[in-house]
Amino acid sequence: MMSSITFSFVFVVNLLLQPIRQWLESLKIENHRLARWLCTVIPASCPFEREFKWGDRILVHIPPLCKLNPFYEQLIEIRFKALMYLADECGEDVTQFC
């Protein structure tokens, strides 16, 4: 059960981050170099997810932590927009970024 203080804190943080989220969502990708750079910088999958194995046994599994990033959805959307720009507008093969 969430206390009212925790709920208030989460509400305030979300309220403060909302303008940044909206700005990220409104970005238009219209530059070939920027699109390639974004596809290179933003990973296709979470780089923090790990499995530590001993032979065939998994000893420890660290789940993907990227979803803790408050801008995770917006960054994935920007990467997708960049991929779509490269594929549709520039006619580039984007398999190297997948």
Automatic annotation (TrEMBL):
Protein source organism: Nostoc parmelioides FACHB-3921
UniProt domain Mo-dependent nitrogenase C-terminal: residue ranges: 16-98
InterPro entries with a match to the protein in the record: Mo-dep_Nase_C
Origin: domain of life: Bacteria
Protein name as it appears in the record: Mo-dependent nitrogenase C-terminal domain-containing protein
Lineage, opening ranks: Bacteria, Bacillati, Cyanobacteriota, Cyanophyceae, Nostocales
